[in-house]
# Entry
Amino acid sequence: MTIQERANNKIWSKIQMAQIHLDDLKNQLKKKTYRPFIDEEQMISMIEGQKIELKVLSYIYKLIETEK
# Structure
């Protein structure tokens, strides 16, 4: 396995986990299970941050894919 294949596999895994985390955060917001630890504004901020993280990981994945 080449270093590019390993990098591809690693970033793909990170994308999948980031998506699962985003879905989990959205579910918590919907069900309001984040209370009493944080407020709704903080939860929305966490979701937005996770969306940005997912975009960054997707960008890295595209860079790796175009190197092949």
Remarks:
- The chain has two helices and no strands.
- The chain has a mean pLDDT of 96.
- The radius of gyration is 15 Å.
